[in-house]
Design a protein that fits this description.
The chain is α/β, with parallel strands linked by helices and 293 residues long. It has one domain: 3-Layer(aba) Sandwich (Rossmann fold), CATH 3.40.50. The protein is built from ten helices and eight strands. Strands 1-2-4-3-5-6-7-8 form an eight-stranded mixed beta sheet, with helices on both faces. The longest helix has 12 residues. It is globular and about 45 Å long.
């Protein structure tokens, strides 16, 4: 049973949180884009066996968390700490999928001594090191797109949405009005996952977009702006997991992060896409549990 609760932040904004309430190993889950923060139900059975207690939160503008336009990746550290404080939790591990992996890495960088270990599955790398001088492709994009650096290997829909984010929040918000998604970002193995336990994503995405696209817009803008921290400063154990067939967030993002973060372990998953890589979830939870101490 997941208990839901609200945390009132010092500036008066509300952060909506989640707590499984049981387990001796707290893990703060960081959700992807567009999702709400409900912890990943397909991993509950493994988590229970390992004694993991889930904590999580809806990032601003998702669910009932107050919007916070202009937030950066680093802001996740303060949010995670606030949720843990509200539940009387001191030290915790962090786990994130997709853009949530980037937010988990920010916690590892900014909460030394408090984050015991960080695992990021299909994480998004910082944009600045890959910033390209050429103008972004117009949106919407029709047909295949060849984009260098940070965009290389990304499906056309992702290139278009994130290129709009590079232009600014207003451009990304305008693109959201016409965005119909891009199924080419998913491999056949990804699509097959939706027919099993990870069909859980359907309800999570629907809930995330129920009040409009602002959470997704703010996420995308944060991905292409400076993080507000350097993942290289993380000193806890860090695990990066990425599917080599991922077209939502290409595996080169985790390769870059592994080269940047001292001591980070990189596990590439041949043939896995953005969703099918989550079959690694139980092993990742075991890795986190082994490093809690």
């Amino acid at each position: 049973m997941i208990e839901e609760f609200d945390v009132i932040l010092p500036d008066g904004r509300t952060l909506h949180g989640y707590d499984s309430g049981t387990g001796v190993l707290p893990v703060v889950w960081h959700h992807g884009t567009p999702n709400i923060g409900a912890p990943p139900a397909p991993l509950f059975e493994t988590a229970a066996r390992l004694g993991i207690r889930w904590l999580a939160f809806d990032r601003p503008a998702y669910g009932s968390s107050t919007p916070f336009p202009g937030r950066d990746i680093a802001s996740a550290a303060g949010f995670a700490a606030a949720v843990a404080d509200a539940r009387g939790v001191g030290r915790f591990a962090v786990l994130g999928h997709s853009g949530g992996g980037s937010h988990a890495l920010a916690c590892a960088a900014l909460l030394p001594g408090r984050v015991t270990a960080a695992a990021a599955i299909a994480a998004v790398a910082p944009f600045d090191p890959f910033r390209r001088p050429a103008a972004s492709p117009p949106a919407p994009v029709v047909g295949p797109v060849v984009a260098p650096g940070w965009f290389a290997g990304m499906a056309p829909g992702g290139v278009a949405a994130l290129s709009a984010a590079v232009e600014g929040r207003e451009a990304r918000r305008a693109y959201a009005e016409t965005d119909e998604g891009d199924e080419s970002a998913f491999t056949q193995s990804d699509l097959a996952m939706f027919d099993g336990p990870w069909g859980w994503f359907g309800g999570i995405v629907e809930a995330a977009l129920r009040n409009g696209p602002d959470g997704q817009v703010d996420d995308d803008v944060a991905y292409v702006r400076p993080w507000g921290c350097d993942p290289a400063t993380a000193r806890c154990p860090v695990l990066l997991v990425h599917g080599t067939a991922d077209r939502m967030v290409p595996a080169s993002h985790s390769t870059w992060l592994a080269g940047r973060i001292p001591g980070a372990e990189l596990r590439e998953r041949p043939g896995d896409g953005h969703i099918s890589v989550l079959t690694a979830g139980p092993d990742v939870l075991r890795w986190l549990a082994d490093r809690f101490g």
